[in-house]
Amino acid sequence: MIKKEYIIISALLIVIIIFSMLIMFTIEKPAESPQMPYRETLANNSNDSGTVEVIRNIGNPNGEKVAYVVGVHPLEHLTHETLVRMLPEMSGLNKSYDIYLINVTDDVGAYGSGYDDDTDPGRQNGQNLAYRYVYPEILKGNYRLAIDVHSNIGAYEFKTFVFSPLKEGLGTEYANEVAMNCPDIASYSPDSTTSGPYLTIPLNENGIPAFYFEEYSFAPQDDKDLHINELIWAVDGLNLS
Ligand SMILES: [Zn+2]
Description:
Blueprint: H1 2-32, E1 38-43, E2 50-59, E3 65-70, H2 77-86, E4 96-104, H3 121-139, E5 145-152, E6 161-163, H4 170-180, E7 186-187, H5 200-205, E8 210-216, H6 221-236
Parallel strand pairs: 3-4, 3-5, 5-8, 6-7
Antiparallel strand pairs: 1-2, 2-4, 6-8
Helix pairs in contact: 2-6
The protein binds zinc ion (ZN).
């Protein structure tokens, strides 16, 4: 009788152990997946005028790699935040996206502070961080395209537009194609840019096509959402060569 009970208890214990192991395996698998987006700090130094982070692995991890950059000009943050909120929420993306986030902490400034584009210290701080930390990462990161996200106070002929600072090349071709596929985004090239030499110009010149997305700073949030949505899907549909 006692022997029989031992056998039953042993059998039950074996069954419990097997089930526990099965449960452990099924719980561990998703945590090990390398395909989830994750956030990484690229620069956080007290002698810099801000920090730089990246959110990697958004969209299809096996797709062509595209980099978005936000925060080069800190006052334009409402447009940056729109992209950072919306892109990771999209499902069914074809390409793989990383978002580089520049967070200027020194001399962020305010609209109407009296600085012009070239002397605003907050803008220069963001441009320096872009050149020092974002440019080399994109250059060596196997990206097929980079998009620098900005906004403007409405001094141009168009308010929401894309362009590459180089008037020809793949950056310009991709920008034109995006504008063609977006009812609310124009293709329009301002005469000059202050940030071009710190990111989009050297990228284009060194083999990474790059263009700007410009939003109107004072557009209602619903419009900003609409335009970012158009941009995201037009970029995702690009035939990158
Ligand atoms: Zn800007």
